Amino acid sequence: MKREGMTLIVKTITRLITGFILLFGFYVVVYGHITPGGGFSGGVVIALALILTLLAFGNRFVEEYALLGQEGLKRSDVLAALAFLVVAVLGYFLASDTVGRVFFGNWIPIGTPFHLWSGGIVLVCNVAVGVKVATSLFAVLLVLAAFHNHRRYNPAEPKEE
Amino acid sequence: MFEVTTVHYVLMGFMIVASLVAIETADLLGSVICVGAVGFALSALNLLLGAPDLALALEVVDVLTFVVLIRVVRTRRDTYHATSRDTLGIAAVIAGLSVLLVITSLSLADLPVFGEPVLRMTKGYLEAGLQSNAAVNYVTSIVFDFRGYDTLGEATVIFASIIGAFAVLRRVGRKHEA
Predict the structure, then answer these.
(1) How many domains is chain B built from?
(2) Which of B61, B130, B145 lies closest to A121 in CB terms?
(3) Which of A72, A88, A151, B165 could be disulfide-bonded to A67 (CB atoms 3.0-4.6 Å)?
(4) ipTM of the predicted structure?
(5) Residue B62, exposed/middle/buried by CB under 10 A (0-12, 13-18, 19+)?
(6) Closest Cα in chain A, distance from residue B135 (Å)
(7) Overall domain count for chain A
């Protein structure tokens, strides 16, 4: 537990590069209906940026941010999954007659092709799945890291208590 | 319509060699690195075959599993030494695999030619895509609109598995903490 994270070189490079990786991840999520990519790929990119921070700075640094603690991650994971379901269910009630009131009916105006606001529910679903994938995958690695630390430091050294 | 060039064969050969090395090497870390190399080659192959969506998804998932596997391997640097080879078992596996290969190669004759797919369902999606929802990336519009129900099922699978992993791992962590 004494050695938090990696060396100064890794930390500096992480500080420089994490913003760009996050930006690329957000781009892949938000523009998923125009360029290659989508909610899943972009979500994994965001999760990888967070994992880079976790590995470089140690999990105590990451857990200082409430959004990135285990509770916050679980909450945003559940909320994003629920948002996806709610968007799908709203198709029953809000979809126009030409589309048909069905599960996953496209109830948001579809807009013009090649613009950011196009595709109707595709954009919203992309964002929901992106948040869900990013938080849940990062949560798994965070829990693995915590588990690993406990197993390594606790049973062998009872004198710490 | 579609030509398989030398680059594809080189990539496929590289994947086969890397997976053989991954199986045969005694060092776990080296094995994990070989598995990562196979993933990267597969991603590059998909990019060359004209599937950038799939290539991107494969690449990022490959990096993620690579990080997790290295994290796991670093905690236990075991090496695996094969003491004796089970000759009968290997013979049985080879016999089974050859039967499977023969059946597969017979049934491959009925499949459509590589690069010339039969567009039965897809044709409707491709024709209706731009009118029914204006998403330019047809892959995403199929995944989230035409086939949204499937995606919801996949999301449920990921959700359940990750919540399960979360619950199992966290309880062990807490027990030591107390």
Answers:
(1) 2
(2) B145
(3) A72
(4) 0.78
(5) buried
(6) 4
(7) 1
